[in-house]
Amino acid sequence: MTTFALIHGGGGSAFDWHLVEAELRDRGHDTVAVTLPMSDPEETLWDYAGSVVQAIGERRPLVVVAHSWGGFIGPLVCARVEAAALVMLTAMIPSPGETPEEWWGRTGHPASGIDDEYQLYLHDVPRELAERVLAHDGELAAKMSMDRAYRQPWPLDAWPDVPTRYLLCRDDRFFPPEFVRRHVAERLGVIPDEMPGGHMVMLSRPGELADYLAGIPG
Given CB 3.0 to 4.6 Å as the disulfide criterion, which of 23, 114, 160, 161 pairs with 210? Predict the structure, then answer.
């Protein structure tokens, strides 16, 4: 049995992972999904990682999964606990000393031109489910204050010594495939794995994502 630590993106919550958690548990695994403390403006990137580390406790073997903005947090978790693998799921890849605020310009992330949240992030998620997630996460996002963390230089000197995979979603409108392939090559020097699905693939294709994660050696 492997424990999967599931880290959500900016403006998200642990609720984003509820379908994947059920799928992984059906496959005999354990899961830990944490809502990061993004409502406290004084919390740092290390504080976010610490909330995940505390929730993990002594569970092992461990695979850390970081989604979107959570890419700034997943490697910090792996720097503090022993992990069998780190999975970057359509995630931002930080460089040492780079702030989350700087990442967008430094990577050349393309503007989508899409203003509707459903169409940008959840276009392949059933509408009723998408509306529930938007309502749930929207309440948290209204209280979100990430001032310190957003402007904090990423604190590691190098990528943690952990086997790392990147999973690209081919239908992602927020982090489009062409951009992601270049980003992964530049920052990690690897070829990403790919699957169908949009940015919130954990909601649109939870079974397929769980199959992928369950296949990672723990």
Answer: 23
Q: What's the pLDDT score for residue 141?
A: 86
Per residue in 152-192, pLDDT (tens digit) is 999 999 999 999 999 999 999 999 999 999 999 999 999 99
Mean pLDDT of 24-37: 97
Rg (CA), the chain: 16
User: 200: buried, middle or exposed (CB in 10 Å: 19+, 13-18, 0-12)?
Assistant: buried
Q: Which amino acid is at 209?
A: L
Q: What is the DSSP string of 50-84?
A: HHHHHHHTT--SEEEEEEGGGGGTHHHHHHHS--S
CB environment 128-151: b (16+ within 10 A), e (fewer): eebeebbeebeebeeeeebeebbe
Burial of residue 31, with CB atoms counted within 10 A of its CB: 0-12 exposed, 13-18 middle, 19 or more buried: buried
Calpha distance 15→154 (Å, rounded): 26
Confirm whether pTM is higher than 0.85.
yes
pLDDT of the residue at 187: 98
Helix, strand, coil percentages (3-state) for the chain, rounded to 5, are: 45, 15, 45
Q: What is the mean pLDDT of residues 138-150?
A: 91
β-bridge partners, 134: none
Q: In what order do the strands lie in the sheet containing 3-7?
A: 30-34, 3-7, 62-67, 85-89, 164-169, 193-195
Structure-token pair, residue 27: 């496959």
